[in-house]
Amino acid sequence: MSDLKELMKSINYNFRDTSLLERALTHSSYANERKNPIPSNERLEFLGDSVLGLVTAIFLYNRENWSEGELTKLRSSLVCEKALYSYAQKLNLGSYLHLGKGEQRTGGATRPSILADAFEAVVAAIFLDGGFDAATNFILPFIEEELSAQKSKKFNDYKTTLQEIIQQNPEERLDYVLVGESGPDHNKTFTVEVHLNSNVIGRGRGRSKKEAEQQAARQALKLMGYD
């Protein structure tokens, strides 16, 4: 119970029904090892995914006048496994998880997929215990900080930022295509296009191919509303 109190302090929410939080921290590997099986956090994870998506969608909708496509890509980047893993790390969630012996031995407490799922389960537990407003109050600080970090990061590495956004849709493919070069060998200018599938979404110029690619990615991000 002391661990639960410590975690509740970290998440700034006091549960009326602490069994919900206990279940959110129970991985299926632990639940299945028990002589008398107990519920794991899988059902909570399912619900938490929807709550998290809705809270994030409302936040983004009210934030700026982004298009539907921009909203979809932003929401994906804010609730992807990588982002949820970072949220869970901030809470040190891995140290509170109930894991089976096998998962404990193989580092389950630090595995991104397990921590991301546990974060979603905690969201659902708060939602069931305290309602939508309580869940919103818990989620928004993580979303706001991540959005701010993404905006800062894009100025440092446009290609990485663009790749992270696009890879949320595995069926889509990015390619950088050299379409021109001019000038003498010691002072060339390169022109590169970035293609999303077969569509040109950005074009950039630079003194090196890498610089041109960065500028093409920058233009693509601007086109997508990531100014």
Can you describe what's shown?
The protein has eleven helices and three strands; from the N terminus they run H-H-H-H-H-H-H-H-H-H-E-E-E-H. It has helices at about 1-10, 20-25, 30-35, 40-65, 70-80, 80-90, 100-105, 110-130, 130-155, 160-165, 210-225; strands at about 175-180, 190-195, 200-205. It has a three-stranded antiparallel sheet with strand order 1-2-3, with helices on one face. Helix 4 crosses helix 9 (about 130-155). The radius of gyration is 22 Å and the shape is elongated. The mean pLDDT is about 90.
Which key phrases capture this entry?
mainly alpha, 227 residues, single chain
Strand composition percent:
5-15%
Structural class: mainly alpha
**Spatial strand sequence of the major β-sheet:** 1-2-3
What is the tally of beta strands?
A: 3
Main beta sheet? 3 strands, antiparallel
Which bin fits the share of residues in helices?
Answer: 55-70%
Can you summarize this structure?
With 227 residues, the chain is mostly helical. It has helices spanning 2-11, 18-24, 28-33, 42-63, 68-79, 81-90, 101-105, 112-130, 132-153, 158-166, 209-223; strands spanning 174-182, 189-196, 199-206. The termini are far apart.
Fold topology:
Layout: H1 2-11, H2 18-24, H3 28-33, H4 42-63, H5 68-79, H6 81-90, H7 101-105, H8 112-130, H9 132-153, H10 158-166, E1 174-182, E2 189-196, E3 199-206, H11 209-223
Antiparallel strand pairs: 1-2, 2-3
Helix pairs in contact: 2-8, 4-5, 4-8, 4-9, 6-8, 8-9, 10-11
